[in-house]
Specification:
397 residues, alpha+beta, 2 domains, six-stranded mixed beta sheet, binds adenosine-5'-diphosphate
Length: 397
Amino acid sequence: MTITETTSSPVAATTGSREAIQHGHRVSVRGARKQYGALAALDGLDLDIEPGKFTVLLGPSGSGKSTLVRSLAGIERLDAGSIHLGDVAVSDGHRYVAPERRGLSMVFQDYALWPHLTAQQNVAYALKRRKLPAAEAGKLVGEALERVGLSAKGARYPSELSGGEQQRVALARAVVGRPSLLLFDEPLSNLDADLRERLRVEISTLTRESGATALYITHDQSEAFALADTVGVLRAGRLEQFAAPEEIYQNPATQFVAQFTGLAGSFTGRVVHAREGSVAVDLGGHVVMARGSEALGAIDDAVVLIRPTATSLEAVSDHAEAGTARVGSASAVTSASIPAVVLDVAYRGRGYEHVVECRYGVLGGVFDNRPWTRGTHCSVRIDPAGCIAFPVGTGAN
Ligand code: ADP
């Protein structure tokens, strides 16, 4: 099923401007439940999106992202719970509003263009319900295609366009009717890396210019962080955390969120000191400082999750062992320095990422401007600012 038609909004008559001339819907989901046999794809999920905000739902395969976005679109019906778009209940125990009457449009992973229609006709199709004069519709279609850089290719059929171009047509089709809500279902997954990056910027710009509220789903953390005003991390049909990307990265609410948003690795040890949200964890010789959850107290076993940004390499020195953070002294807030050996090095364009092994485990994504040769003995420095400790046994596995 393809949803491209949009109902007219109060300001949709003011067409032709690239300004953000309308406000998006407020989206409010309460207790959303969708069951497939014994499996709860949505397990009592709550979600609130402010008008005009760009929200990205991030989660592993099977966490319920598509089910949620399809329920918002009206392609799926909830078993329980409610969805409000603006003040209107589009789905609750009594009411179900058809997709084409929800004032939204959706961009799909596989583009979902009509193969027998040209790019122009595909975009124009989204305006059909509006019954605009031909000249006005033609002007809107022309503008939308121009915005995605496809003015010269409007007469081509999808089969005559590249994947990236087809997705641009789908994007033009999604915004041409000035919907109040734009839904994106992994729209970049089928494109290669370079194109993905460019189209990501276009989606961000075009969506924000339109003033529509946007909900975008992906399993790609970097895509989510790059696009979102707010990121929701989804796990087993529930939101595990809903916050700005910076907050998610710096203060992940759970071990699952931390693991799913990029770690160099993790070490386990025993908490030897806990105060004001900060803990010292003895790994068995070296002590690392970390932000700790409130549940952690002294003598608890803890897992220290280490962001790649917290790691750096330095030459082995006489101070390597002595560089260990000492609890209760001024040096307790300093980084730990742990002897390690380089297992692997990968060139990443802007520098090199290393995999290193120390006696507490392996760390990946350790960045340096210069390459360290495999087998080199070094020290890995660990900055407390990028370390988060959780009680052992509260992780994703
Ligand atoms: P995601 O988009 O995060 O990969 P989905 O929303 O597609 O997750 O799926 C959530 C869970 O619901 C998965 O376990 C999936 O297998 C299951 N599921 C989704 N759609 C159906 C369906 N039509 N029939 C049975 N199970 C389904």
